Batch of 2 targets.
Target 1
Amino acid sequence: MESVLQSSAGQCGRESPVAAPAAGERAVRDATLLRRMANQDARALAELYAVWSGPLYSYALRTLVTPEDAEDALQEVFVKFWKRAHAYDPALGSGFTWGWMIMRSHCCDILRRRGRRKALHSGPSLDDSGSAPILAITGADLLQRDEVRRVIGALDQLPAPERRAVEMAVFLEYTGEEIAGELRQPLGSVKSRIRRGLIRLRNILQRHE
Amino acid sequence: MNDKEPVDQTGLHALGLLDERERLDYERELAADPALRQALRETRDQLAAIALTAPQVVPPAGVWDRIEDRLNLSVPGARGNRRTASRLLRFHPAWAAVAALAALSTWLGVRHHEVSARLTALENSQAGRPGKAGPRGGPAPGAERGGPRPGQEPGDLPGGVAQGAAGRELQPLDGRTMRAMGLPASVQIELDRLRAAQRPGEPTPNGVADLRLMEMHPPGREAPARREGGSLVTKVADAIAAAAAAANPAAPLSPTPAVLRGQGSSPASDIVIEQGGTVNLNSLNLHPDAQVVHQNFPADSEFGRYGLSRLDADRVWDGNGGIWYRQPDGHSYLGQKAPAGFHPPDPDDPAPVADTTLRPGPAKPAAPEPYAFPVISNDGQGMIVTQNLPEPAPGFGYALWSQDANGGSPVLLGFLPQAEGVNGVFSFDLPPGTSVPGGYRITRQILTDVTTPGSTLLQGP
């Protein structure tokens, strides 16, 4: 998970928005674990589980709401990681982002099957400003506490409508139409909010590098 | 800003929010523009970073085991209800063993009521840095009976750090005692039979199922490289279990141990008994919202075998403070602790119990006494065992602070993971330059507040 914090600076002439001092090391670790998994090293999967399961489970829980669904999702994506590790290409992005995208896709499928409304209305609700309070940071995850705090700090600087729209898209897996319906805004406005929010977020994080 | 430029559509594309025409346009640009591809990679990283801001929750025990089962894998040391595999593989074996054993003793006291473990230091040679016992609730229950040794101050750990230990295995001394060798810590474990004998038909608790080891660090500071040591904990647990069996030859349970699924440690984790006898509900560290369900309750003809007695058509007394309520399906029973004031039937008086007040319902056990049990090594690495901390309020967690002996400002050592903090073993490191702690404090803490201790739950030397 920490590999999301890896820096890709230099590749396009700007700093990665969430670079961290140990980011490169974590990215190498994740890539190494995935390579070992591709070579059928089961212990590498266990090690990857140790560092990714917390944030991926937390994301799944936030998105799918019920612990049972989140546990199932976690199980399923780690099975996928094992089977697809050979397909991971470090040149195309960090290991954690690769893993998170698989989890996100899986959550999307589940939500699509069961209907999306439940996540918004019965889940760990976003507060009025759309913020996501951190309830706890688990042991190994403390390694990235500062980075998480940076992102939260950047999210806090977004205008509330932009932040809410971004978080609905990221955590609740809403389509543009669904966000528009929920926020009672035209679809074009919602897309603009998300677009501007992400650009603003990137700029804030770059400024605080 | 012109937010219709392809690079500015990147976020929407990464979120799957472009319509078909926009997506095709974007992907055409993407194929031709390496910088755009890089921007997409960075945006995905950014979104993944946002995902990390979700409230952090540790996945429940057993998910890893299910993954192993699905893939038909077996990773030595990774299995066994650990929350996360490698967290168990990363702890400080020297004093971690002491703390882990303390936790084990607690577990044994709670879950394996056939025996309890007593921890006794063989030596305490590292002057000036004795471990400190927890305050309220005192040291680990199993340790209490060891009593202070000569030169040991009240409140000091019953365990200490020994020198000159040789060998790398646990060394059984006799049927009731063993030593953990090959560590800076040398720990003697004594196993005693408890008065409450285990009833036939009860399950044998599953090893170290309740033992969790996790790392805890000061904010922003990574831990030094850990030496793998999870297997040691397993060895300790296995050795304790073996010693327990040796000390209690009648311990192997009969006639049919209950076959359990689930931990009962969370609202979502009921304990399901698939077959066999009942469990002693009072021996379980059961979450108030978790249930114990016996899916194939013994037939009346088997009641004598399992020590059961029927109260009425729908209720069965298990002889251990538990009443089992028949469920609508007719064959499964829900176990609940008997209400206060309930008097079980006298076996010599078969008259029916004149109690019409008993009804199935949520039985909230009294909140157990919280305690914490910190240990610190000579090089500033520490571990704390926590038990029975109440669930923190939403938005709050528990933070561990050290306090130097001269009354200086408290130093935040880290946060206990929310899901694990109520019962667990956590390692921490003293920040560089921090003096030897004169005491510790566990506070209820807003996690974004890392400067001022919140309200104190536990404190002590």
Target 2
Amino acid sequence: MMSELRKDLISGRWVIIATERSKRPDDFRPRGAVAPAPEAVGFCPFCEGNEGKTPPEVFSLRTAGTAPDSPGWTVRVVPNKFPALTPGPPPPRATQGIFQSMEGRGVHEVVIENPDHALELGDLPVTHIREVLRVFQMRIRAIECDLHYQYVQIFKNKGKEAGASLSHPHSQIVATPIIPKRVKEEIYGADRLFRVFKECAFCRILRDEEAAGTRIIAKNGHFTAFAPYASRFPFEMTVYPKRHSAFFTDVREDELLTLAETLKHVLTRLKETVNDPPFNMVLHQAPNPALSLKGWPDIHLKSHWHLEIIPILTKVAGFEWGTGFYINPIPPETGAQFLRQP
Amino acid sequence: MKKKILLVEDERALCLLYEEELSKEGYDITAVTDAEAALAKLGEITFDLIITDIRMPGKNGIELITQIMGLRKDIPIIINSAYQSYKEDFMTWAADAYVVKSSSLDELKARIKQLLGE
């Protein structure tokens, strides 16, 4: 069967769905099909009891009466000990001939999702996952008060192949003094499509995905998880809120709980389907509202926050780097079907 | 009494330089060239501070730090590596400071003083 080229509506990116080399989930399971055990806990700076080895916490959810930087926490946020970006107002950009540079100002924090080294985000009770999500909201709000930070990126690297250097479950927050290129591309794409559809492009995609149903993985009253039409990677997933909103901080309390339920479900299904693969989870949202609403007064109508989960099962290689095309050996419809099956 | 520093550095020329420079500052330096020797010395002597390289033959500096943490967590540790990139590894957080190797030892000396409360 011939492969198929598919276009991602928002980014305009093309993907090759290589159906002739279509694989099954078993093809991605490591031989022996045994999930890798978490690394032996010799010493881990994120484990309870080792709080002294991280910089002082900036925030934590902890048992009443316990002191900061001591045991008794459930979610803990610490600044990066050796940060790539340091807080403070960014000075004007410098130029060296035709090249531009600026001081590395920004925020880099680590969200330690739970004190137990062996419990991944998807293994936690739904109410604990909700707490982690609530902490994300709180940190975004706190960081965005400083108008030097134009964009707050929340992401999770799970597993070495996904970029994690420590197996203790954690997410990261990086705030940058500029709006990253990929975020701008998404805004421009959504803006262009808004004019075509006369509505938010993400809302339209969600409606069409739900109508088609073939790529839906899970849904509840507030959220839908599906495999994007032009998925770049096998078992790629995205989670859209049904209620239109550009900013993650707008998610309501009742919605946080259903988001936690959705996340737990899809992460568990991913773990069961492809044997606990490494993955990246990335939050997409509009830039700092205090700034972006000035530059793009209607951004709240066009941008639509969502989560992207990318299992690391294939390698990005020369063709992808050279062309921006991705080759996906599993059609998203097939991936969604496997992820849906209990 | 002189403060005791354990230096773990596989390049002998650097060991000699550090020993000379840090001795001048009034420290008692014990230099070893690999992690196993460092662990053996830790069993014999009570050090006030440890300076370790990361890339070394045998066990690397991060594995060494992990083992030291299993023994005692209260000795300040400075990572002294030629590679800035290792800072991105959260395991380096077990150390108290990260100083990139440079021709000047000023930053290293300042961090030693700070960690020893001098």
